[in-house]
Write a structure and sequence with these properties.
The protein contains 27 helices and 18 strands. It is of the alpha+beta class and about 575 residues long. The protein folds into 3 domains: about 300 residues, no CATH class; about 120 residues, no CATH class; about 100 residues, no CATH class. The longest helix is centred in the first third of the chain and has 15 residues.
Length: about 575
């Protein structure tokens, strides 16, 4: 729980405000705190009023999640713009977290501090991949995780028509929305974080993985499309550093785990089943769609007008983009009929394998990628063919069976009370339930900090975050005199992105969305001043709706609709 005399506690609670990827990695319980903050959000519960979600109770779980997916796709975009939340440096962050984590361990687990994992991302240069190559090598992004309100407020930002967010934001949003909108029990929702990505696993039907705005079912995972390829990348190529759940978390870096051990085993077994499938003709066809560079090793036969014809596989796969027919499923015949006959040849090429041989083989042979005898039969099939010396079968097995790199179970398992929200029907119900649990549950306690509720959270961490980790407003103000910065802030819209009278936006949210309550604008101006002046002396005084900000010998007046009284100090925020 929060201890105002403990610098480590203040650091953790201030991290619950800014919620950067780095902070979530160091303090893994923050991830679920954001989920709970979104569940408390009246904005999320308002989604229920949209006709799109009518009659949700009549649908099965998968259909409800699919309905939710389409709503998120329609209302949010993916955003990984480095300038949105600004930049920091490795040295600054290492100094900040040196007492929490060993630097060598950090380098092995976090992409921005040296982790390279498997070589998928790093063959393309990680800094160039994230557009960091234009900065010095010590510069890294904050990549703050947005609350629902901050995600929706992107529509006020130039260049955005809808809401937006980065991967951790979508992960937390999906988890909260799956509970509120799709009635998926919290026990079935697991959040997964890798060094470069965040996804969720929903224990529904054969399993569902959320990936940014979209979802991937088990069938979709193996369909070989570009969408499924993007969803597979993190789990295929990276370690899973954190699994977060309503019962707790497990982190690859920490020896103690608070997640329920039995539920973690159930999750691990479910995810492992999701990541393995029997090899069939359709799976082989999907594998070739996924690995397009291998298509030139195959040809497809086609009976047309009583003649057996042949065509290069890559030509057929190319035609999939213009129709709904696919190689490998029941529509393959229609796909071949849509191709002009002059594209076919009467003779099979000796340097290409005929896919129909696979089709016939799998009619009579069940092939489990984990069974050596099954795989040997498949390799025997290729003996004497043009594929006899290839590694196609080994790559096919990797496509059909992924072993997730999860945190191992050799932990000290701590008993913790899970967060429960049974029977809640509104945002107010969620807030009241979590307020009661916050007295003994640290994650629920942190949730109010992530929720930005300053009537239920300490001020000091909020102000610390506002002053130390909001570089966008500071850089945006540039060389403006303080009076000019005040005039600019005064020209912004008066309404806060957080409609409730006890919730506050951070300075960079005010700056990015060009709106804020007077109290938020006062804190923003104070942050700009303290980052530009060596004396850093400020004070905020409130009198009902009137706010007076003192910066050195200058005074600035604001009006507020918030029902909050910030701390007054001549050395604010000390």
């Amino acid at each position: 729980m929060y201890d105002s005399n403990d610098s480590s506690s203040i650091e953790k609670y201030s991290s619950a405000v800014t919620l950067s990827d780095m902070e979530v990695f160091i303090f893994p319980d923050l991830m679920y705190s954001l989920v709970l903050a979104n569940i408390m959000s009246p904005g999320l519960w308002k989604w229920k009023d949209d006709p799109w979600f009518s009659k949700m109770s009549d649908k099965k779980e998968l259909k409800r999640v699919q309905r939710l997916k389409q709503y998120i796709i329609d209302h949010f975009s993916f955003n990984l713009d480095l300038d949105t939340w600004g930049l920091t440096t490795k040295e600054k962050e290492l100094k900040r977290f040196s007492k929490f984590i060993d630097v060598d361990i950090l380098a092995k687990s976090n992409a921005l501090f040296g982790y390279e994992g498997d070589k998928y991302y790093f063959d393309i240069d990680i800094r160039r991949h994230f557009n960091l190559d234009k900065y010095d090598s010590n510069v890294i992004p904050y990549w703050k995780t947005e609350t629902l309100e901050a995600m929706e407020a992107f529509r006020f930002k130039e260049g955005y028509a809808n809401g937006a967010g980065e991967c951790v934001s979508f992960s937390a949003l999906y988890a909260a929305a799956a509970f509120v909108l799709a009635d998926i029990p919290l026990e079935k929702i697991f959040l997964l974080a890798t060094p470069l990505h965040s996804q969720n696993y929903l224990d529904v039907d054969d399993g569902i993985i959320t990936n940014n705005r979209r979802i991937v079912t088990k069938n979709m995972w193996y369909n070989g499309t570009e969408l499924s390829a993007k969803a597979r990348r993190a789990i295929e190529n990276e370690i899973i550093t954190i699994v977060a759940h309503n019962s707790g978390y497990i982190h690859t870096m920490y020896s103690e785990a608070s997640i329920d051990a039995n539920l973690y085993k159930r999750f691990k077994d479910g995810l492992t089943r999701f990541l393995s499938t029997e090899i069939t003709y359709e799976i082989v066809a999907n594998f070739l769609r996924h690995n397009s560079s291998l298509q030139n090793r195959f040809q497809i036969s086609h009976l047309r007008n009583g003649r057996m014809l042949f065509i290069e596989a890559e030509k057929v796969y190319c035609c999939e983009s213009t129709c709904k027919f696919r190689v490998g499923d029941t529509t393959q015949q229609n796909l071949l009929l849509s191709i002009d006959e002059n594209q076919f040849t009467a003779q099979a090429r000796s340097d290409r394998f005929v896919l129909a041989v696979f089709e016939e083989f799998f009619r009579d042979n069940k092939t489990d990628p984990q069974n050596p005898d099954h795989l040997q039969r498949l390799k025997t099939l290729l003996r004497g063919s043009c594929l006899k010396d290839s590694d196609i079968i080994d790559n096919l097995v990797k496509f059909c069976r992924i072993t997730p790199k999860l945190p191992h179970e050799q932990r000290v398992w701590k008993q913790s009370e899970p967060v429960t929200l049974d029977g809640i029907k509104s945002a107010k119900d969620a807030q009241e339930s979590l307020k009661a649990q916050a007295k003994y549950n640290p994650t629920a306690n942190l949730a109010f900090m992530a929720f930005r509720d300053l009537s239920s959270s300490p001020w000091k961490p909020f102000i610390k975050a506002a002053v130390e980790r909001n570089p966008v407003c500071v850089n945006g103000a540039g060389n403006l005199e303080l009076n000019d910065a005040y005039k600019l802030l005064s020209s912004f819209a008066e309404n806060s992105i957080y409609g409730e009278p006890t919730r506050l936006a951070q300075p960079d949210e005010v700056w990015n969305y060009k709106r804020g309550d007077g109290l938020e604008k006062a804190i923003t101006l104070a942050s700009i001043y303290m980052n530009k002046q060596s004396e850093n002396r400020t004070a905020i005084d409130t009198d009902g709706k009137n706010i007076k900000l003192t910066c050195g010998n200058q005074e600035f007046l604001f009006e507020t609709q918030k029902e909050l009284t910030p701390p007054i100090s001549s050395d604010w925020p000390a």
